[in-house]
Amino acid sequence: MHLTTAAAVRSTLRVVRPFHTFEGEGFPVRRPFPQPGLPLLDPFLMVGQVGPHVLGPGEAKGTPPHPHRGFEAIQYVIEGSVEDIDSAGRQGVLRPGEVRWLTAGSGLVHLARPTPELLAGGPQHLLQIWLNLPARLKSTPPRVRYGRAPGDIPRIVTEDGGAELTVIAGSTHGVRGPFETHTPVLVVHARLAAGGSAGFTVPAGHNALLYVLSGTAATPDARLPD
To answer: Which terminus of the chain has a lower count of CB atoms within 10 Å, N or C?
Structure first.
């Protein structure tokens, strides 16, 4: 996998291993940042990965009510399902391939809980990304948007067939994701075949992050472990 700025291939500045923690009602989370010694990757504030793992009956856990304010929270379900409820009365279930994009703005209270089917047991794998909001939008009214599967979130296969790209936000390979963002970002889930590759163009001055969900990957100058 490689990143370019105009005609130049970007160098890998740092390889960071995620740390493991527990959140909510006690579910395990793998988090590459924030962590000590790693500067903020503005506008990205946090990435958290739950799974992949297989849960037994009754093992699924959620979160108690907690506040969000001044940023955006993206929740992307790869396997399993999750139900979200907030203080404005919004309630929705995410299933594989679906996204919940919360613009917290002036603030709300939110909780997540496992669906009945997940409580019965099964695979779970999801990702959460936090994006900073510009200062002028910190007090914007809260808003929730959903990307449903199939149909809402485009998937493309690269010309050589080596990668499938799910474009959640931003534009790449001639395809635009469904979510308009307050800060220009590109959010893509890339599934690479063994030996497959994908390249992305990153505007000059923009930060770039590659996060390995499972398996291993490499850039032209670094190997990225699971």
So the answer is: C
129-170 pLDDT tens trace: 999 999 999 999 999 999 998 889 999 998 888 899 999 999
Place of tokens 């390889």: 15
Question: DSSP character for 209?
Answer: -
Bridge-partner residues for 67, per DSSP? 109
Domain spanning 2-224: which CATH class is it, in words?
A: mainly beta
The mean pLDDT of 95-114, rounded to a whole number, is: 96
pLDDT at 2: 53
pLDDT in tens, 63-99: 999 999 999 999 999 999 999 999 988 899 999 999 9
Tell me how far apart the alpha carbons of residues 37 and 29 are, in angstroms, rounded to a whole number.
20
What is the pLDDT, as a whole number, of residue 222?
85
Count the neighbouring beta carbons within 10 Å of the beta carbon of residue 6: 8
Write b or e for each residue in 73-109: b if 16 or more Cβ atoms lie within 10 A of its Cβ, otherwise e: bbbbbbbbbbbbbbeeebeeebeebbbbbbbbbeebe
Q: Which of 188, 168, 186 is nearest to 178 (CA)?
A: 168
Other CB atoms within 10 Å distance of the CB of residue 33: 19
Biggest alpha carbon distance in the chain?
52
